Each structure stands twice: as C-alpha cells, then as structure tokens.
Amino acid sequence: MSNKVAVFRKEHFNAAHRLHNPGWTDEVNNNVFGKCNNPNYHGHNYELIVKVTGEPDVRTGFVMDMKLLSDIIKDYVLDKFDHKNLNLDTEEFRQLNPTAENIAVVIYRILRAHIDTRLDLQVRLYETERNFVEYPA
Amino acid sequence: MSNKVAVFRKEHFNAAHRLHNPGWTDEVNNNVFGKCNNPNYHGHNYELIVKVTGEPDVRTGFVMDMKLLSDIIKDYVLDKFDHKNLNLDTEEFRQLNPTAENIAVVIYRILRAHIDTRLDLQVRLYETERNFVEYPA
Amino acid sequence: MSNKVAVFRKEHFNAAHRLHNPGWTDEVNNNVFGKCNNPNYHGHNYELIVKVTGEPDVRTGFVMDMKLLSDIIKDYVLDKFDHKNLNLDTEEFRQLNPTAENIAVVIYRILRAHIDTRLDLQVRLYETERNFVEYPA
Amino acid sequence: MSNKVAVFRKEHFNAAHRLHNPGWTDEVNNNVFGKCNNPNYHGHNYELIVKVTGEPDVRTGFVMDMKLLSDIIKDYVLDKFDHKNLNLDTEEFRQLNPTAENIAVVIYRILRAHIDTRLDLQVRLYETERNFVEYPA
Amino acid sequence: MSNKVAVFRKEHFNAAHRLHNPGWTDEVNNNVFGKCNNPNYHGHNYELIVKVTGEPDVRTGFVMDMKLLSDIIKDYVLDKFDHKNLNLDTEEFRQLNPTAENIAVVIYRILRAHIDTRLDLQVRLYETERNFVEYPA
Amino acid sequence: MSNKVAVFRKEHFNAAHRLHNPGWTDEVNNNVFGKCNNPNYHGHNYELIVKVTGEPDVRTGFVMDMKLLSDIIKDYVLDKFDHKNLNLDTEEFRQLNPTAENIAVVIYRILRAHIDTRLDLQVRLYETERNFVEYPA
Hints:
Six copies of one chain form a homohexamer.
Chain A: E1 5-17, H1 26-33, E2 42-54, H2 66-81, E3 84-85, H3 86-89, H4 100-112, E4 120-126, E5 131-135
Parallel strand pairs in A: 1-3
Antiparallel strand pairs in A: 1-2, 2-4, 4-5
C-alpha cells in the first residue's frame, strides 16, 4: 500500500458574479441561467478546500507545511478573487463564464504552478452549502 | 413564569453589495470600508434566522405555522433580495448603506408588517460564518 | 453586573412522530399539519441544547459539572425519547401533540426537577437545521 | 489529465424507519439491530448529497444544470421518501431493510435512470451527523 | 423600541489546559475533574464569539467596524492564548482554574477595556461543539 | 459495477501535543514548526472520521455494524488518546512527531488490526476545521 497521505486546507473568499454567455440572446441566457443571469450581479461566500497528496517528509511529518499552503492560496487565489466582481475585476473570467466548475478549474491551474510537482492537487469549491464542485474529478 | 416559546426559521439568499457613503470622498470611503468598498461589488451567501415568540396555540401546539413563516419570508424578503445587487436592484438600499446591520433592520421592518402583533420578532443575519448581526438587540 | 455565567450542553436523539389533533377531522388535520400529519409517522434527528445559568463555584470554576448535566439529560430525556415513537411510546405525548414547541416545554419540565433551583434553565430544540424552538422564551 | 469536474447537490428529507429482518425471531432482531428495531419506528433527518461527474459544457460551463439536478432529486426521491415511513409507505422498503446502505443504493438506482449516461453518479447519505454512507464506493 | 443592533465576530484559538485545584488532594481533583485533571494536559480548539451591542452609526451603518473588533480580539486575546498552555504560559490562569466559565470571564474583562463603554459586550466560548459558555449571562 | 458501499463513523477526542524534532536545534524547530513548537504544548479537538468499505450483508443490510465500529474506535483509539498529551502520555508519539499526518497513519494501523480484512479502511482526521488529513490517500 502507498504511504501517501492527503492534507486539506480550507479557505474562503467573497465575490460577486453573473452567469452569462455573450454569444446568446438575453432570452436564451435567461432561460439557461435564470436568476444567476441578473445583469447587476449577485454574490457568494465561496469556501475553498485544497487537497495536496504525497508522502510525509520523515523529518517533519508533513506532506506540506499547511502554513505555506495557506500562504500560497492567499497570495495567488484570495488576493485575486476576494471581494471582487469575478466578471469585471479579473482577467480569468473576462471571457470565461464564472460557474463553480470553471472557477474550480481556474483555481486548480493557478495553484498547480506553485505546488511541488511530486504532490497531487485537487480543488473543492463550495458556491453555497448546497452546491459545490471538485476538480479534477 | 411565562408560557412563551420562541420558534426560529432559517432561510438564505445570495446577493451582491458594496459598502459606500456617497457623501464622502473615495479616499474616505476606502479608508472606512476597505475592500468592501470595491465599486464593482462583491457578494455573500446571507443566512437569515427569523425568531418569533409567543404562546403556543393549544389546538395546534404551534406558536406559528413554520410553513406560513417560511412563505412570508420567501414572499417578502427572499423574492426581493435573492440573486440581486442590493445597491442597484432594491429600493431599500438605494440610499441606505447595505451593511449587515442595516439589512437586518430592513428585513425586520418588512417582516413585522406581516406577523401577528401579539408575537415578538427578532432577526439574525449572517453575512459570513464569522460576521453576523441581530435586531432588535 | 451579575457574576452569572451560562453553560450549554448539546445532546441529540432520534425519534418518530406525527402531528395530529384527535378532536379534528382528517381533512382539518391535513390542512393544518400537511405532510407532518402522515398517519404512519415520519422522524427527525433532534438536537437538544440545554442552558444552565448561575454563578461559578469558586472552588471548581464550574456553574455545574457538564458531566453531571450530560448524565441528567441522558437519564431523564434521552433514555425516554431516543429511538422512540413519541406518539406511541411515551406517556408525555399520548395526549399532547409532539410539536417542537411542546417537546421543548416537556423536556424543560423534566429537567427542571433535576437541576438545582438556584440555577436558571432554558431548552433549545432543533427539529431540523432550519426549524428550532426555545423555552422559556 | 481528464477535464472532468464533479458537481454536488445537497438535499434533505425526514422519514421514519425501523431495522428488522422478518426471517429472524424478535430476539435475534433485537440483538442485531438494538433500539433501531423498535416496532413503533424512530426517525431521522436524512441529508443527501448527489455527485455527478463529467466534462463541463463549453457553452454553459455546467457539468449539469444544478436546478435540473435539484428538480430530479425532488421529483423522484424527496416526493417519494420525505415525511414518510420508509417501511410502511414505500414500495422500495417493503421487503428491503431500510439501512442507510440500502437507502443509498435505492436512491442511486432511482437517480441513475434520470441522469445522462455519459455522467457518473454517486450518492452520499447522512443518517445522522455521525453515521453516513456512500454508494458506489 | 430600541434602535440597538448586536454584531457578532467569531474567532478561534487552540490551547492546552488542565483543570486542577491546588488546594485539593490528587484524589479529590480526580473525582471532581476526571480526565480533565490529566497532569500532562489536554487541549481544545476554542471557538470564541464576541457580541457587541449598540446603535449603528448613521454615516457608516456600523455598530462597530468588524475589522477593528477582529483586530482587538487578535491583539489582546488570540496573541495571548493561541497555541499556549493556559496553566503554564499565561498570567491569567496561573492561579485561576481554566474552566470554560473562567476563560470566558477573563476574555470578557480583557476585551471590555478596549471597547467603547457605550457598547455592551458579551462573550460566548465553545470548548467543544457540545460544551460552551456565555458571559455575562 | 461493484456492489460495495462505504460507511463512515465520526468520533472525536481532545488532546494536547507539540510538534518537535529532537534531532534539530531549538532554532530550526522554531523555524519549521512555529508556534506549534511551544514547549508547554497546545491542543485540539480532533474530529475523526473512519471509512469502511465492503459489500452489505444481505441479512442485515450492513457493511459493518456501526455500533461495533464505534466501540472499536472507542476501545482502541479514544481510550488511548482522549484527554491525553500525545507526546508524553502515549507510546506511539514518544519518538514520532504528532502531526495530523502521523496521527492519521497511527490510527489507521491501530484500527486495521481490528477490522475484517475483507473490508477496506480509510481514516480522515480534522486537527481544526481548516486543517485535515486523510490516509491512505
């Protein structure tokens, strides 16, 4: 059996967003996205759980220093998205619809570049307590 | 001792908002409200707990039918605020800063008009898991 | 200012119940209690929070030993209601409609007899995460 | 790496049930199922989390419309089990013991018939906060 | 009716402690405090909720700036107690038994000195999810 | 598709610990472990979720009797670690640094010896709500 352990760090950010496909008419957008299509935006308290998997270092007993993981999330994800309008204030969602699925994939790609390649990475994102997503599945 | 029982109903809505005092300069607004002053808005999953206090009806054992209370909250609060931009989409916060304190007072006043005057009313509003308010105190 | 401190203990029990007024027709019962009137019962995970208020003992620093409070709740409330059908299996609700309000009052009266009269007592009962009650209010 | 994202929707229902094997004596049933064997039933607030996995649609950014998933769960699971006695009121558990394991498998099979076969499905069911199950494992 | 609103801020700290009365024999200490008397200490994740009550400022809509309240809690409570052994590392509990009741009173007194006297203050402290206290009651 | 179902049981214990590598200087220990290196210890409410996977028994509908699983966790894990100082009071962490990763591996090994080898086992351990681990990954 593998000696791998998964470690998880939970963080959160608050943001406004709107679901919208600019290639569609207002009517189609409204049919598909409902009240999430509101042109003046709505918002969420996003809860983010980052999972990192690998073998614990024998000297520290850590897969990864949780303080370092928390700092990476803060520097590269929270500082970018917290208290922002995802559609208007961020490069990532100027063209890309900020669904929970797409936000999770974007956060994964951001974090992947800053975490040791020997470690596996997965992102879970709660849009509400009742709706959440995980990437990669 | 009183025979009064308090009953609580929890509901939630998602909204965008921005904290801003139009009588102040941008600099003062930024100093006071920090990142909550972002001109493009941010948002929250608001959790709302409505407390109604009175004597249970001997025939039903209810202080108030929770289904009715839930419907009142839905019709007069959630339909007005859910998936909205509080500053732009609602009459109530066109002039009034949508802090958690002010939102709670507004929701209290809305609900008070629809609940039997023999019953006491209190509103608790969670802006995040870590910041919440109660009115009347 | 008073030196009083409130201490809270959370316990839980699972039970079946049915809301029903035997003095009413089936139609009235169904109109008033809806699906909670199902003749074959439904059930809940009840979460119970017992609040005891008084001055901490200077020798122990305790308002009341939480182990003792937990034992009292277990002996007089949980052993009576846990994994029971409230309507069929308990004396208390043979005539009394087991609404959350009535269950809270019954639990209060049971516990009041076993807790030092110099201490104040209050009961909060969650029927679901979204519906809960408190007695005395 | 796969482009698959998992999306989760949380719903809940309240039901009564009793664990019982009709092929056994009362004594054996009592030894195996303990207080869960109470002939008058007990009950739970069941929390249900449905996980659907697939590639997001590039036009919507959705693996599956969460509103549609919620409606499917409501129409085919909640309307069948909510506020019911699982042993007496449902076809599914007339012969089958309503353990959390069996309820999860039954819900999985019900939902599987209504969800696009290109999407993977998994069900998590909380009987209490401390006891829960997942199918398929 | 008063215009007062209560605002709440939730913070947390992790600490070791031991319940012990130095004026008692080991046997009495063990009888009264049980496994909480372990001479080598045990520990908790303490959740702290600070409630501040007053009238919202008409210019800000705030009873008190939550960022300021959070900073006060951090500077005067968390920096003192987080990741500490309450019995050994803190002045406050060198002579005083660190029960949840006493910790809440101590935190109240610390915070009271740093919060505007026109505002009311109350402290809730969770030692575990099942045991918590409130001061003043 | 497999008929396997996973069942989960949640338990908790409270303990003190200190992160420390005796082969390092105090300065290195402090740099690596920060305030978790406090020589007088700090503590946590550990939440433990044990996952057991297998095919439900057709006679009971159980993968494993949750009462039995709870008793095994209580007898072999909680009685050993609850209200203890992990570094001083336990054999397991006299030489091994009690990080969440190492505690999860130790608990896995303890439980593995007491659970039917036809059943798979996984352990999730929450050190705080924001930091948790899973083994095997």
